[in-house]
Specification:
By secondary structure, this protein is mostly helical. Helices cover about 75% and strands about 0% of the residues. The chain is globular.
């Protein structure tokens, strides 16, 4: 039932609002609209406050003189609306959300997500070998006199991850990069444009499917190792069933890793062809391919859940593009054996590719928020959710957070770093057994450096996560206190 008093009139329903004649904007107070009003009633109220009364205009004759005086502001017009200071408040908010607040909030989120991907990426080169070394020390009788200790799920997972990593690197080493490069270079520009689009689609599919595959394999490993814990019942049928499931999960995971690593390799080679082409037409077409993504995303109906999935995909895609850029840089350095440095013109082209990706992400999310009435604060909610899950997840399980599988891009990078290492060794003249020892010490120093970077990055991510969570909770408590 509606309630009214003489001081604060309240419109309680759409029917009552439709029976109320249009009033002058000064007589209407938008703050008196109750929250129970429907969207149509609220919109009607918004526009009703800016209109003059119908009684002021119904007896005014229409003439050319009245029209010109109104348009040229010679006299006060009968069609005069509200002052500019009371018109366009929400429109101004949408403008600044699109230009400033969404890009700022989005880049904070994407930079944090890219840091998570880099942390998981470095785990494969640093902590995974150290964890396996610890497993060897605990398992071999020479190092450990304890017997009968069951294998833990983390130890079995590390062995499977390292085997997938080695399998991916071996598979890519069998591929002839020069042959693939010249085959792609001989294709027509339009055909190459279509192929690049197909590769991007397969990359996203493999990323999503690969995260689910690794999660399934992790669950199977936990179920299988649980049978060998002390005091656990040794059910042979259950053990055989979990073993077959693990074999199946590992086979699927291996197929996904090989496919995605090959897709990323072909993407990198395609971009390399575009960068080294005589004209900039191919490079412009491949860069414009990113802007087609805006057309396919901006005008779709989007909610906060779908937007979060899209944002995670943008994090992974940005890291994959960064991997391709490193591949192109190393590949072009290898073609300059006399001078192992990156050409300045090539560096500008690679930077333009990355900047175009950043620009596309900003434009896409800005207009997605504008057309779907999504506030920039939602990215703060996403960042808080990532921070919470980051503090509860280890770096090698980042696929649970942002659906990122680090093995495939790591295989691509190792594939190109192997010939780079051999070129550096040849350039330094490290021959013979003394040279091998010196080169081994150089690799050991590089490994220690990567471990230091991994520790610093991982600790910084956890520290930033906890600091942001504390700041977020403090801000929310202050807002609640103001409302009370």
């Amino acid at each position: 039932m509606s309630r009214t008093n003489s001081n604060h009139p309240v419109i309680a329903s759409r029917e009552q609002l439709e029976r109320v004649p249009a009033v002058k904007w000064k007589e209407f107070d938008a703050r008196r609209i109750p929250s129970q009003l429907s969207v149509d009633s609220a919109l009607r109220a918004k526009f009703s406050r800016n209109l003059v009364s119908q009684d002021d205009t119904k007896d005014v004759p229409l003439s050319l003189k009245v029209y010109l005086e109104s348009e040229l502001s010679i006299h006060k017009s009968v069609y005069e609306m509200a002052p500019d200071s009371t018109w366009g408040i929400s429109e101004r908010e949408r403008v600044y959300n699109t230009l400033l607040f969404v890009p700022y909030q989005l880049e904070k989120l994407l930079i944090f997500g890219s840091g998570l991907c880099l942390d998981a990426f470095l785990f494969l080169f640093t902590f995974l070998p150290l964890r396996l070394l610890g497993t060897v020390v605990r398992r071999f009788p020479f190092f450990n006199n304890k017997k009968g200790k069951h294998i833990r799920s983390e130890e079995l997972s590390d062995i499977l991850w390292l085997s997938l990593f080695g399998l991916g690197v071996y598979f890519l080493c069998l591929q002839n990069i020069g042959s693939i490069y010249h085959y792609i270079r001989g294709q027509e520009v339009l055909k190459l444009y279509v192929v690049f689009n197909v590769l991007e689609i397969f990359d996203k599919i493999c990323s999503s499917f690969g995260a689910d595959t690794f999660e399934a394999m992790s669950g199977t490993v936990s179920s299988l190792t649980a049978h060998f814990k002390p005091g656990a019942e040794k059910n042979r049928k259950a053990i055989m069933a979990d073993t077959f499931c693990l074999v199946g999960d590992y086979t699927i995971a291996a197929g996904v890793v090989l496919l995605q690593s090959m897709v990323i390799l072909c993407e990198a080679i395609t971009l390399n062809v575009a960068v080294n082409s005589a004209s900039n037409t191919l490079l412009a077409m491949l860069i414009s391919n990113n802007f087609v993504e805006i057309k396919g995303s901006v005008f779709k109906k989007m909610d906060v859940n779908k937007l979060f999935v899209m944002t995670c995909q943008d994090m992974v895609e940005r890291f994959h593009i960064f991997t391709c850029i490193l591949f192109i840089a190393v590949e072009n350095i290898l073609h300059r054996p006399d001078d192992l440095r990156l050409d300045a013109h090539l560096a500008v082209q690679l930077a333009s590719i990355m900047m175009c990706e950043v620009l596309v992400d900003v434009l896409k999310h800005s207009f997605l928020g504008k057309f779907n009435e999504i506030k920039p604060g939602v990215y703060g909610e996403y960042l808080r959710d990532l921070c919470v899950r980051t503090t509860r997840t280890r770096s090698y399980k980042v696929h649970r957070v942002v659906s990122f599988e680090p093995i495939a891009p790591a295989c691509v990078l190792v594939r190109i770093l192997i010939p780079l290492g051999l070129a550096i060794k040849s350039r330094m003249g490290l021959g013979g057994w003394v040279g091998h020892i010196q080169f081994g010490l150089l690799l050991a120093f590089f490994f220690v450096f990567l471990v230091a970077v991994k520790i610093f990055l991982g600790f910084s991510i956890h520290w930033i996560s906890r600091a942001f969570m504390a700041s977020y909770e403090k801000t929310q408590n202050q807002r609640k206190a103001k409302l009370q």
